[in-house]
Specification:
Elements (H helix, E strand, L loop, with lengths): L3 E4 L1 H4 L14 E7 L5 E7 L7 E7 L2 E6 L6 E6 L5 E6 L3 E6 L6 E5 L12 E6 L2 E6 L4 E6 L5 E4 H4 L15 E3 L5 E6 L10 E6 L5 E4 L5 E7 L5 E8 L2 E8 L30 E3 L13 E3 L2 E8 L2 E6 L5 E6 L6 E4 L5 E6 L3 E6 L18
Antiparallel strand pairs: 1-28, 2-3, 3-4, 4-5, 6-7, 7-8, 8-9, 10-11, 11-12, 12-13, 14-15, 15-16, 16-17, 18-19, 19-20, 20-21, 22-23, 23-24, 24-25, 26-27, 27-28
Length: 374
């Protein structure tokens, strides 16, 4: 298959630029796409106001412009699985959602806990079943809402409010839902500067019971459940490196920090939990504090990462590059289709292009199991 152009650069330009100002967006801050490429959403920032933004939805050759009020920058975009709704996370802890088949319906809504920062981009949205979840690193809260009623039916701040300070559970800004929306995952920062205990929290939506998994990744900014919900792909950064790991959520050899049965920490004799050793992705620069969106393509977890002059799709299990595309500068955004088979790159200079990816490698006949350390 050949590269397909979804939009020309002039499709991204604002129709009403200020006098003596370029109509071309300063940068693309986020992009989302449906599996069949029938709809593409692009969040732009205009050159004449640093934080002036709008969202463009391209479908059937037409461009629909969705305004973002108060000059808030969009950090993350995601379509519902059927492509009928679009959710955006913006600066100042703002959530926007549009029903695209009903142009009159748009509802801006702030997450529980107001406030936020224009310069804190790690703010994500995840969709699963009839629910969507949002997370923001400024408020350290994760909220799950019903997509139809828009009501909150899971709020980690409320769920864990009775825990002692040393046992507190907060979110770092990264979130994932499984396919039916019943299982939630989010990154938990370290509880103390004296103890490196960062991890990923997995829990059933609506329940206070949770399991904490060590990842060996100090700053995780991308999560994705495998389609069957039994494994979780984690990608992030540690000093000088981009790293990734796969958690088998049903394998006791992964040694979760909290036992889901007795709720007690599982610690080895030396007094500290053993971290898995992540796979190192040889990216051009450290990926830190930016939104990443891993996608499972069959049994292969993939993620696109934007470097200064290229976009590379990585296999998170092996650490190998699947495809690398040269791009004109760092003002772009990239994403994968929900099935992980197509890379979409949005650039102010080149427009929007879809690059087909090779099929995933067949899984090994038998995978080695990790043995817990003594």
């Amino acid at each position: 298959m050949s590269v397909r152009r979804l939009a020309a650069p002039e499709d991204l330009a604002t129709p009403h630029p200020l006098p003596a100002r370029s109509p071309v967006p300063q940068r693309i801050t986020a992009v989302a796409v449906t599996t069949d490429l029938s709809r593409t959403a692009i969040a732009t920032a205009a050159p004449w106001f640093r934080d002036f933004a709008e969202v463009l939805v391209l479908a059937d050759g037409a461009v629909t412009r969705l305004a973002i009020p108060d000059r808030r920058r969009v950090h993350d975009l995601l379509f519902d699985p059927d492509g009928t709704a679009l959710t955006a996370m913006a600066s100042r802890n703002s959530l926007y959602r549009w029903a695209l088949d009903d142009p009159g319906e748009r509802w801006p809504l702030g997450m529980t806990g107001s406030g936020g920062s224009l310069d804190l981009p790690l703010a994500q949205v995840a969709v699963g079943g009839r629910s969507f979840a949002t997370a923001n690193a400024f408020t350290q809260n994760v909220v799950v809402r019903d997509a139809q009623t828009r009501r909150v039916h899971h709020d980690i701040r409320e769920t864990f409010k009775d825990l002692a300070y040393d046992d507190r559970v907060v979110g770092e800004g990264t979130v994932a839902l499984n396919a039916d929306g019943s299982r939630l995952a989010f990154c938990r920062p370290r509880r103390s500067f004296l103890k490196e205990d960062e991890g990923v929290v997995v829990q059933e939506v609506g329940s206070g019971t949770h399991t904490e998994h060590r990842t060996g990744i100090p700053w995780a900014n991308g999560l994705a459940f495998r389609p069957d919900g039994a494994a979780l792909a984690v990608v992030g950064a540690r000093p000088g490196e981009t790293v990734a790991t796969i958690l088998d959520l049903n394998d006791p050899a992964d040694d979760p920090v909290d036992d889901p049965v007795d709720g007690l920490a599982d610690e080895p004799a030396d007094g500290g939990a053993h971290d898995p050793e992540p796979v190192v992705l040889p990216t051009d620069q450290r990926v830190d504090r930016i939104n990443l969106r891993p996608v499972w393509c069959g049994a292969e977890p993939r993620v696109p990462i934007v470097d200064p002059h290229r976009v590379t799709v990585w296999n998170l299990a092996s650490g190998s590059a699947i495809l690398s595309v040269d791009v004109p500068g760092p003002r772009i955004a990239a994403t994968l289709t929900p099935d992980g088979r197509t890379l979409v790159i949005a650039s102010p200079d080149d427009g929007v292009h879809a690059h087909p990816l090779p099929s995933p490698s067949p899984p090994p006949t038998s995978a080695p199991r990790r043995t817990p350390l003594p």
